[in-house]
Each structure stands twice: as C-alpha cells, then as structure tokens.
UniProtKB/TrEMBL annotation:
This is SusC/RagA family TonB-linked outer membrane protein. Keywords: Signal. It comes from Sphingobacterium populi. It comes from the Bacteria. The keyword Signal applies. Residues 1-24 form the signal peptide. The keyword Translocase does not apply. InterPro entries: Plug_dom_sf, TonB-dep_OMP_SusC/RagA, TonB-dep_OMP_SusC/RagA_CS.
Amino acid sequence: MIKINTIACSLFLIFSMNVGYVQAQELADDLPETDPATTDSIHVAFGRTAKRDLVGAVSHLDVTELLNKNYATNSLDNLGSFISGYNGNIWGQAPLILVDGVPRRAEDIRLVEVESITVLKDASSVALYGSAGSKGVVLINTQRGKVQPLTIDVRANTGIAVPKRYPSYLNAAEYMTLYNEALQNDGIAPRYSPEAIYNTAAGTNPYRYPDLNLLSSEYLRDFSTRSDITTEITGGNHRAKYYTNMGMSYNNSILKLGDARNNNDLAFNVRTNVDMNLTPWLKASADAVANINNNYAARGNFWDATANLRPNHDGLIPLIPIDRLDPQNPELQSIVRNSQHLVNGQYLLGGLSTLQTNDLSQLIASGYIKNRMRTFMFNVGADADLKGITEGLRFSSRYSMDYTSRYTEAYSIPYATYQPTWQTIDGVEMITGLQKFGNDGNSTNEFIGTSMYHQTMSILAQLDYNRTFQAHHHVSAKLLGWGFMTQFSSDIDTNGGSDYHPIRNTNVGFQAAYNFRHKYYVDFSGSAVHSTKLPEHSRRAISPTATIGWRLSEEDFFKDNVSSVSELRFTASYAVLRQDLDITGGDRNHYLYQGNYGNNTNLGGYFEWRDKAAGGFTVLAGGGSNPLLNFVERKEMRFGMDAGFLDNRIMLNANYFRQDVNGLLARGNATVFPSYYSGNGDFLPWINFNNDQRTGFDFSVNYNDKIGNVRYNLGVVGMLFNSRATKRDEIYEDNYQFRAGRPLDAAWGYIAEGLFQNQEEINNHARQAFGGEIKPGDIKYRDVNGDGIIDNRDQVDLGKYGWAANPFNYGFNITLKWKNLTFFALGSGQSGAIGFKNNSYYWVTGLGKYSDQVLGRWTEETAATANYPRLTTTGNNNNFQNSTFWMFKNNRFNLNRVQITYDLDERFFKPSSIVSRMSFYANGDNLLVISDERQMMETGFGAAPHNRFYNLGVRASF
C-alpha cells in the first residue's frame, strides 16, 4: 500500500509539472496585455465584494503579500495578530472553517498555498451559510493562476527547535528525604534508610541506587530539526490559468532513547487549481489536492514518564549493565547469551515486580507505530454569464469531495525485563540474581492497527444579480442552495465516534442589497435552514438579517469642512439566526425530542413514584419526549465604524456587538419539572431553556507612512469581551452560587486563608469536608455561607478562565522596509483571566513525583515562610482544590515572530538570467513571553517542551 501511494503521488507530481509547462508554452504567445485586477475586492459569503462596499464586520488578510516578509506553515498562523475579534474563536464562539468554500480542516492546507483569509464575524455576514456558519466563518482561499508567462517559485527552509525550559524535579536523594518527611507527617515509619539516601546522593553506584533524570542529555537532544521545500508553478492567458503547488516537509524528534531516536514526520502535498474560459459566457474551474502524511513513533509515552516516573522509583533501573553481573553465576551469563533484547550489547532491560514494563522499556524494545494519513480533495465548478436573459445575471455551481483515510502499520515485539539482586562480594558490588518478568519474543511482520476514514461532500448552486442603474443605483441579489455532509468511520478530529448520523447542513440563502453612490447602503440577507435533529414540524426556520450603512465622508458638507478625515463610514445590523449546532445532549445529538420507553433495566433503570407507593421496570432510555424542541437562536445587534485619516495613512475599524443566544438545552430538573422520579434514569425531556449573552468591542488600527528612506507599517488589533449566563436551570441555597448572571467561563473555587499553623486553629475553624484528617500545614478555606462546614456550597466565582476569549485580547504587527531590507515582527497578548496551578507538577499526591515546588513546604520550622502545604502520602484532597491558594493571573505578552528579509537587487539579474528574483530570510518563532508566570507558561508538564524555532530560508523565482 505504501509503494502504491508513493508511486501515485510521484505520477501526480510529474503530471502536474508537465501539464503546467506544456500549457505555458502553448499559451505564452497568446497573452493579453493585462489581466483584470481583483485587488479592490475581497472574498465574502459566496462571492466577492469591493472593500469600500463592505457593510458587515468582515476582516481580510492578503496572505500572498504577507508571505514576502512573514514565512509560516500553519494556514491560520498568528491570525489574531492581524484580525481583531479572532483568537481561534470569533467573538467567543468556534467558527466554521471553509477552504475554497468547503468545510475543511485548516491543517489540510499550508500557508504557502493561501491567497487570502477573510474572517466573517457578525451574524449578517454569515447568514447565508445557515446553521453551520452561525458562530462565525473563516474563509481560506487558495492561490489561483494568473495571466502571465510561466513562473516557477521555489522556497526552501530549514531550522531548529530549541526547548525553552523543562520542568524542575527533585533528584532521587531529595525525593527520598522529603518522602520520608511526608510519611512522618502521616504518622508512618520512614520508607528509605539513611544509608540508601546517602548512597544515592553519593552516586557511586547509580545502577544499585538509581537517580533517573529523564530530562537530561542522556535521553534528549539539544534540539530537533525541521525542513521544507515548496515549488509553485503559475501562469496562463485569457483562456486558461493554472496554479500548482508541490511541497515536502520533514521534522524529527528531540528524543534519542531507543527506537524513539527515529521518530519523525514526513509530509508531501500537491495542489493544482485550473480556471478556464470555455466560451465568452461560460467559465469552469477544477482543483485537485493530494496530501500524504507519514508519522513514525516508537511505542511508549516518554513525556508522560517524565511527569510520573520517580527518580529512584523503588530501585527501577531502566538498563541493567551486564558487566555488573556475577561472572561466576552461569545462570546469569546464560540469560545474557539468550537475550534477544541486549541493548547496545551492554544492557538488559530493567523492571520491577510492581512495574514490569514501563515507558522507557517500551521505547527501547517494543517496536513502533507508523501512522499513515492520505487526503484527497477535489473541486469542480462552473460559472455562466446569463446577460442574454438579463444584464447582470449569473449562475454558478460547485461540487466538492474530500476523502481522508488513516491507518497504522504497527510492529510489536514482546520482551523480558529483570529486577536485579545486589550483593557486595570482596568489596565489589555486583548483581547475584535476576528476577525475570515476561519473555523475549520476535516478530517479522507489520500489522494494520487502526483504519478509519473521514469524508465530506459539498454542493452549491446559486444565482447572482449585480447591476448599476443610471451610474448611481447599485443593486445586487443572491439566491443559493448549499449543503454538505461529513461522514466518519471513527472520527479523526475527535475521540472516537461513528457515522450513524453524519454531520449535515442544508440551507437556502438569499440576499438583496442596494447602495446609492456608494454612500447609503441597505442589505437584507438570510437563510432558510433545515435540521433533522428536531421534530418534523420544527425542522425548518428562517434566519433574517438587516444591515444599513452610511458613508458620511461622501457627504458634501463633510468634504468641505473636514479635510483630515478621508474615510468615515458607519454601519449597523440586526440579525436572528436559527441554528442546531447546540442541539446536543449527553452522548447524543439526534432524537433528543423523542422519548424511548421499554422494560429493559439495562437501558434505563428502576423507577418509583414520588409517594413510593408503586414502582416498576417501565424505563426510559435517554430522556422524555418533547415535540416542541426547537432551534437555538442567536439574536445579535452590531454597530460598526470605518475611518481613514491623513489620506488613509491611518485606517481604523471598530465594532460593538451584543449576542443573545436563547434556547440552549436543559433538562428542567431544577426549575421546570419537579423531581417525581428516582432511579438510574429519568423521564425529564430536553427543553429550550438556558440563555447566554456575549458582548464586546473589537478594533483594528493600521498606520502606514514613511520617514526618509524607511517605510513603515504598524498594525494593532484588540478586543474587549464579556460573557454571562442570563438564564439557567438551577437551584442553589445561596445567591452567590447561581450561575445565571455570571460569566460563561466563571472559575469556581474556594477562598484560601493561608495554612493552618496549629491544632488549636483547626479546632476553632469550620470543618473542612474533603476527606482525610486535617493537620497543621493544610490549607484553610473560608466558610462563605457560615454553616460551619466547608464544602462545595462555599465555592465562589473567583474570576474568568478566558477559555473562549480573554476579557482583553490584543495583537500587533510591524513592518520596517529600507531599500531591499525588510524587518517584520508580530506579537499577541491577553489579560483579565485567571488559571489554577492544578496539574501534577503542583499538586503532589501519594507516590507522585516531587517537583521543586515542594521545597517551599510547610514544616514547624518554616511555618512563617511556607508557600506550599505540608507533604502527605495519603489521599487527602483538602489541599488540592481549586482555590485562591493555587490561582494565578493569566496575563501575558508573546513575541511570536521576528523575521529579517533581504531581496537581491533586480539589477543583479540579467534579462537573460534564469533567475528573475531571489530573497533570503531568517526568522525566529515563539521568542519571548512576558508575564509574572513566564516560567510556568513556557514549560510543558508531562508533554513535549515548548520550543523556540530558528529558521533560515531562501526564495527564488524563475
């Protein structure tokens, strides 16, 4: 299968190159003088519009121009530094990603293939997409051919990824000492003897007294590498235009242990976009994409081991040196001779009776997994000019099909591990016995581990009408039908799933717009949506929007009196979008309106009536029926402003928005329906009950000017964001615990009042009901409701997590150009949100690995200065609750990229030269974080490290 895919890809590459070359030669003599410019228009929903006539909250990024100074691979790379209101979400909600108008994964396309990115933020701009686009849309449009002779652009990059920092864990002797202290705190005898601790600290025999440091150069390289090369072929004439992109990328791993030293990712991609003028009134397009991604990974999770495998781990030795085996013991020598997994000819694999295999031995001896992903994407389209029927009328149609398959080729080998017995004989420490776990095996065959697919089909048909009457009256209209269906065997994008219910969207879109002299604007857009998630009589709805605009700067009185303002436009919109994206409940998305009754207790449970008088096995699987279940509504009001100052050297865009999302699902068990039933299930139906609200203000400012020979451009974007739950199905005893009126991302936790200093303080405090005995050195919490017990009723709103969007998000980009030298930098930041230090690095429980955080632990000697609770080996959960003790401010500023580019002077290339242009550049990514919690933010806990990436690149045009 690998050979077939490789051969197919190679043939496709050769075919694409030959076609492009032949076309170029055939068309070169037939080139018109100019190609109609489209730089004054941008992509919007199902079409393009002139920038000056935008009346929605729409932001646009010209990627083709950006790549000349800012090289990246991710298609949405640092988009939040250019476009306001976007931080991965749009105005706090997850958007629909469309690549060339088709729902696709952003990772299926590289930035070098992209022509432009448009972010549609407000409801009026996304209404034509129906339910699927109701939370915002990101349009990624790929590059297309141009009317020009054959042009070949080649770009090559290579760079290194250098870890910023690693977690800091205690060494074995420190761990053993503090673990004994924790045992003493619990009234338990020490586990490690002073002799064992001394010998471990001395390091005279690291095999008998191990001190594992998995984050050392013994296991890790100083850096990993990444390289890529891309070739672009562009050309065409008025009959046909073509664009071909071919690329390959490779990166390795920072691991150098066992088979993990061969970990790598290798990817190939080919894209060909062709546009044809078949007749004076008929155009056609065809796009084809093939992506091949191969990943090689050794078995075992090394990064998980770094967070969980203790430095001494009760004597675990990953590698047992055979030169320490008793040479006079024939049984031991026989084990060496017969071992099929003798590492480097020097070591046997180590194990314990309580840990017979581990991630390290897996990486060394158990084989590998090759992940194979193959993606094919295909678009065809036709556009007909119907001016023969009436001027300005056009019809277009599109069809696309994407198919992704993923499978694994695995190689698994059984192996034996050994636990040594040490003795000192004649003053020499040697291994006199080995306890064996498991058996060595062998395998010569790979096997297919998993196999899954993911496919999307999309179809579009639309009529467009666009005409100007008497030079001043501009009328446009649109009527379209759009639908797509996504199926998966086991969801590649999430964890598991099935294709019993494919993801579907079907809708009819309509738009009517008018502007007078590009001064006064009115737009009515909407869609008729359909959903199979709802009862039959509720499956269709209308989503209307209305937008108005006024270009004040075109008024005569404004022109005559205000010279410094070159552009000033105000817009406003109101919309009601109906969507089924939030029609979800439990593990189901469909048939929530339908009750399912039966008498099988395995499907539901045993129920009793409220008076306990009668009961039975009549049960319900999944909830009661609700024939009134309906769409969720997004009601939105928006006001926008666009302004240009000083001949448009300063450009400003701003939007205020308020979204009310009504009819989110709830069960009504708290406030609507009484609790008549008890058991393993319930009869409560899903109802449209909960409401959310999001408000915010986003802005972008761009300043473009020149000082001497230096031209500069500075862009700043930002968003103030707030959300709250306006209605909830809930009942609490205390008003401060109601979620209604609180942020959607409210962080609930306890108010910590320091550490208990003595038993008397504990006795005089409210009882803390988290399990386990409270002792001096434990965290003390505030009894908020004054009932004498600390439990979940004492949790309060401590702040905002900022999961969807921080209260304040911002970004910047700056360009300085002097002659042929260009400096570019971009950054981003956030403020106003909080987080909790609640991973295993901070919350050390039981036999957990000790980090340097525990050095500030409470003891009787450090009671006045301690910043960490007492150590304990028990399952006491008192200290490990989200509270102000562990809370931190998530404020940060990131310097995401700096790039310096030098363009060779055009005079360097002769007219007859094969090379027409060449540029060299160097850039660095993820360079700096400025924050009070910088060390934590730059550290990967139980995961691969955060890296700075340094890259060198060259681009040449032929």
